[in-house]
Amino acid sequence: MKFSICNELFKNMSFEEICSTVSTIGYRGVEIAPFTLCEDVRKLGRRSRVELRETVERYGLEIVGLHWLLVTPPGLHILSTDAKVREFTKDYLIELVKLNYDLGGKVLVFGSPKQRNIPKDMPREKAFELAVNLFREVSKVAEDLGCIIAFEPLARHLTNFINTVDEGVDLIEAVNMPSFMLILDVYSMSDENRPYSEIIKRGKKYLCHFHANDTNGLGPGMGNADYSDIAKALREIGYNGYLSVEILKPVEKPIDVAKKSYIFLQKIFK
User: Fold this and answer.
1) Quick one: angle between helices 254-268 and 227-236, nearest 10?
2) DSSP letters for 86-140
3) pLDDT band with cut points at 50, 70 and 90 for residue 270
4) Which string of DSSP letters, residue by residue, matches 170-212?
5) Residue 183 · residue 151 · CB < 8 Å
6) Residue 245 near residue 25 (C-beta atoms within 8 A)
7) Cross-strand partners of 107
8) Model confidence over 192-208: pLDDT tens digits?
9) Is the pTM of this model over 0.85?
10) Is the pLDDT of residue 83 over 90?
């Protein structure tokens, strides 16, 4: 099992410092939140992209992919009632796919809860149709560039669109593209109130990425999630992708959290 970590945990650290730190701890990859690089990735030039990739490789790491895709710039929304906003969002997602390709990443995690909420008075069936159409177009570009859009079911208090693995699978099968797959996140899985192993096995066919955190939004092993059940299920389905540590709350000592998370995962997946 390979372990990576999301870069937004390390606030006030340069990208090179982050790479040095996570490499020393033992992680093999870094997952990047684009808003930590700049507000609008269309302004991130070729030279900057090459430097980011070279920095990662210099520390023996790889860029696993991107997440928190639509935090910036303002005004993005996949289900907006305004067709121009949806078009802008689709085009920006395509720019993120191109960035991911330039950085050597594979996966783009689509969570972005606020930017996917179903607007008031929009029928759920309409929202589903809009999402299918948008992701089908973006996935065509992702497929051409060898990338994967990984859709993330999120807890109900975060968004009102796609909250369970069953709903995630329904969307993936409707999009019906090999470059549109599934990510599972321990924090949001906990909201389903069913065994983690059952959720993982339900998503087996499409699972391409996994976020390791805990019921309290902190690192794996810092809450009440049953990681023995999680590890057993991942082994049983033959999962061989990354477990990427994603911390959902601000912490005072990010390096300590990164170390404790890594040690815990090493122990569980030994």
Assistant:
1) 60
2) HHHHHHHHHHHHHHHHHHT--EEEE--STTTPPPTT--HHHHHHHHHHHHHHHHH
3) confident
4) HHHHHH--TTEEEEEEHHHHGGG-S-HHHHHHHTTTTEEEEEE
5) yes
6) no
7) 65, 148
8) 999 999 999 999 999 99
9) yes
10) yes
Domain that holds residue 181: 2-268
pLDDT band at residue 1 under the 50/70/90 scheme: confident
Which residue shows structure tokens 């289900």? 79
- Residue identified by tokens 């997946």 is 269
Question: End-to-end alpha-carbon separation of the chain, Å?
Answer: 9
C-alpha pair distances (Å), 270 with each of 72, 105, 204, 235: 38, 26, 21, 11
Is the backbone peptide bond immediately before 123 cis, with ω within 30 degrees of 0?
no
For residues 243 and 105, what is the distance between their CA atoms, to the nearest angstrom? 15
Tell me the CATH number at 252.
3.20.20.150
Amino acid at 170: D
Q: What CA–CA distance (Å, rounded) separates 77 from 257? A: 32
CA 123, chain centre distance (Å): 27
- What 3-state class would DSSP assign to 7? helix
pLDDT at residue 40 in the model: 98
Helix (H) or strand (E) holding 257: helix 254-268
Number of domains in the chain: 1
In whole numbers, what is the pLDDT of the chain averaged over residues?
98
Q: Where are the alpha helices (DSSP H) in 145-176?
A: 165-175
Angle at 67 between CA 139 and CA 136, to 5 degrees: 15
